[in-house]
Amino acid sequence: MEDMSYWKEVWERKGNGNTTCLEELDGYEDTTADVKEIAKQIVKELDIKETDRILEVACGAGGLAQYIKCGEYVGVDYSSSLVKRHIELLNNSVLHGEANNLIFKDKTFDKVFCFGAFHYFPNQEYAKQAISELKRVAKEAIFIGDLPMTSHRKEHLLYDKNDFKDWKITDGYYNPCRFNVSLKLV
Ligand SMILES: C[S@@+](CC[C@H](N)C(=O)[O-])C[C@H]1O[C@@H](n2cnc3c(N)ncnc32)[C@H](O)[C@@H]1O
């Protein structure tokens, strides 16, 4: 799946819908995901403290962000409509951008996470670039969640646990066909 435009258009449309439900804007409406619980697990996994500077890559409208308490939260997403909704609904600092090309300087954030987005990337090369960007802008740790091993959608990019040998791997939070990875940088 090399075409960037397919999923980008889907997420652009999402943000232009009428709902103000953050979970729905972020695409969780037809899933069993408990978004509050997922946020709790990410806070635990990354040991997010109330003083931490946090970046969420592919943050959407803020489905998870609404539950993350930290010193400073910054989000990035490639959907302009979702960025707009996120700012309107949560008043967070959110920038428009691609996961594989972050505008921040090295080690700008204490911890960086990306949940529920890697399967929308166009190919493995893009995913590798995104991982090195996450590592570059983080000081202490990064977390990537919801990586699918298999999927009912042919448009989803799939991942293999064997490609994350130096990482801590955990089971998907709501879907047994998915897994999460995290890496301590210090
Ligand atoms: C399922 S939503 C998850 C949103 C948020 N992380 C959450 O869990 O509530 C997926 C998000 O990934 C974003 N996204 C997908 N591919 C992206 C890319 N290449 N760069 C930046 N954002 C991307 C979409 O616009 C969408 O907001």
TrEMBL record:
Transmembrane feature ranges: none
Domain Methyltransferase type as annotated: residue spans: 55-140
Residues annotated as signal peptide: none
Gene3D superfamilies in UniProt: Vaccinia Virus protein VP39
One Pfam assignment: Methyltransf_11
Gene Ontology MF: a single term: S-adenosylmethionine-dependent methyltransferase activity
Name of the protein: Methyltransferase type 11 domain-containing protein
